């Protein structure tokens, strides 16, 4: 495993290079994680792929100095520095990284050989995230509530009493709201990644017309990313496969590594 930095404008982008196979596999991590999340795949996929795992802004060792905006085009420029020959690529995305992989497929379908998505975000519109990141009033309220969490906590209490959120999801939310630094980090990360908004109808058409294999893995007990959204997206498509296992959201674990590695279609 090799740790590297590249310069992007005023920022230093960190990525890990793993394995030495002839095909290129870019790996995109989830919220609050980093490139090392994919190290468990080096012994499983390293003979076939060279794995490139990038730390997103405000994650891992990346030093982001471009304000609260990271655009898909920025990521394409970063990938071009890592892969200047523009070799065909494969994508592995987990959670938030799944949304990133879907966005890139939409932008450069001619270069993408296949996608493996693990508990991927981006398959439905999260109304709270949309309000907080895609509208100016919502983003101002989001920033204010992160500095003054009593508003958000009161709202969560109401939603809990109305049974609009289950207990496991509330615990997940409180983990990020009960600590000031976690709250401000949440604001920076969500706001910075707001331009990654894949268009599902267009994507499904791309996947069909270009016959790009897409395999998605979900945990049956995941209350953050629901398998039903993947099943709806993959309906009536022979190129999209949805797998559901007895697990929660945390699927990047040694016990699931062989299953995920086996999802890559050989010969693509």
Which features characterize this protein?
11 helices, about 270 residues, 2 domains, alpha/beta, eight-stranded mixed β-sheet, about 40% helix
Structure description:
This protein has helices at about 40-45, 70-80, 95-105, 125-135, 135-145, 150-160, 165-175, 180-190, 200-210, 225-235, 255-260; strands spanning about 1-10, 10-20, 25-30, 50-55, 90-95, 110-120, 215-220, 240-245. The mean pLDDT is about 90. The chain is built from 11 helices and 8 strands. It is globular. Strand 1 (about 1-10) and strand 2 form a beta hairpin. It folds into 2 domains: about 1-120 and about 200-260, Alpha/Beta hydrolase fold, catalytic domain (Rossmann fold, 3-Layer(aba) Sandwich), CATH 3.40.50; about 125-190, no CATH class. Helix 4 (about 125-135) crosses helix 5, helix 5 runs antiparallel to helix 8 and helix 6 (about 150-160) packs antiparallel against helix 7 (about 165-175). The protein is about 40% helix and about 20% strand. It has an 8-stranded mixed sheet, covered by helices on one side. The protein has about 270 residues and is an alpha/beta fold.
């Amino acid at each position: 495993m090799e740790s590297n930095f590249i310069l992007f404008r005023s920022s230093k982008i960190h990525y890990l290079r793993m394995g030495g196979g002839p095909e290129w596999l870019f790996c995109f991590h989830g919220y609050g994680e980093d490139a090392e999340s994919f190290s468990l795949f080096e012994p499983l996929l390293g003979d076939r792929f060279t794995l490139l795992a990038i730390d997103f802004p405000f994650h891992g060792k990346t030093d982001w100095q471009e304000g609260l905006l990271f655009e898909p085009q920025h990521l394409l420029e970063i990938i071009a520095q890592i892969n200047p020959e523009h070799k065909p690529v494969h994508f592995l995305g987990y959670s938030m990284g799944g949304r990133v992989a879907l966005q890139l497929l939409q932008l450069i379908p001619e270069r993408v050989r296949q996608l493996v998505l693990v508990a991927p975000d981006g398959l439905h519109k999260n109304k709270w995230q949309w309000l907080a990141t895609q509208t100016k009033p919502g983003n101002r309220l989001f920033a204010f509530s992160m500095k003054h969490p009593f508003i958000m906590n009161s709202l969560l209490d109401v939603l809990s009493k109305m049974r609009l959120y289950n207990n496991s999801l509330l615990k997940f939310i409180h983990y990020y709201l009960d600590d000031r630094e976690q709250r401000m980090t949440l604001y920076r990360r969500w706001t910075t990644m707001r331009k990654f908004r894949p268009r599902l109808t267009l994507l499904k058409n791309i996947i069909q017309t270009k016959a790009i294999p897409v395999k998605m893995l979900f945990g049956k007990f995941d209350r953050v990313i629901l398998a039903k959204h993947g099943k709806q997206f993959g309906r009536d498509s022979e190129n999209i496969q949805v797998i559901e296992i007895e697990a929660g959201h945390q699927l990047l674990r040694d016990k699931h590594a062989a299953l995920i590695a086996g999802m890559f279609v050989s010969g693509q």
